[in-house]
Design a protein that fits this description.
The chain is of the alpha+beta class. It has 9 helices and 8 strands. The N and C termini lie far apart (40 Å).
Length: 196
């Protein structure tokens, strides 16, 4: 039951909370929680090639990540979500290349440069601002932090825990290098960080 529950919950790519697993599946078998989760994790791995990963030990929230090689390197991908994941990889690349955190104004300017305008309906991505600030954040690909003492309020974007689990800085640097037609070592500090 837990395997089925996790597979259904993962379709929305929203982290799965321990409380939901206890309430909806495990119920009266609370004492065997760790054993049940461990067994479900083994079944997910062996049957579906998915790894159950705890991304927030305080809130006890989990995600499923594929342990199978993806068609295009090791980037996060799902067939119907390919376009959104492409945009996400571009955003993660921008954040990494700019020192692992970017102001929202810089991110929106970068996206406008790519002809993806926040606040306008995009034919592929829909509402881009909502996709980035709500969906990618809720799915834990991105983390938004308010910048203190800013009026009007400004925010900083960083990689979220799901991004760190599903891809690596080395993969992202190789992606940027391929797009730019350069050797990854061209960006010394990013290369050092990615290969550390």
């Amino acid at each position: 039951e837990l395997v089925q529950f996790l597979l259904v919950k993962d379709q929305k790519k929203i982290p799965i909370k321990r409380a939901d697993m206890l309430k909806n599946v495990i119920r009266e078998y609370r004492d065997a929680y760790m054993e049940i989760v461990s067994q479900a994790g083994r079944i997910l791995q062996e049957t579906f090639g998915l790894q159950l990963v705890e991304i927030d030990p305080k809130l006890h929230s989990y995600i499923l990540i594929s342990s199978l090689p993806c068609a295009e390197a090791n980037h996060p991908c799902r067939a119907k979500e390919k376009e959104k994941m492409g945009l996400l990889i571009v955003i993660l690349s921008f954040i990494f290349m700019k020192g692992n955190a970017v102001k929202d104004s810089a991110l929106w300017e970068f996206l406008r440069w790519l002809r993806v305008h926040p606040g306008e309906q995009h034919e592929i991505f829909g509402d881009v601002q909502k996709l980035v600030t709500e969906e990618f954040v809720r799915q834990k690909y991105l983390k938004i932090t308010p910048i203190p003492l800013m009026d009007p309020p400004q925010f900083s974007y960083q990689w979220g825990p799901r991004a760190a689990q599903e891809t690596s800085k080395e993969d992202i640097l190789n992606f940027v290098a391929k797009v730019q037609g350069k050797n990854p070592k061209f960006w010394t500090s990013q290369h050092n960080e990615a290969t550390a």
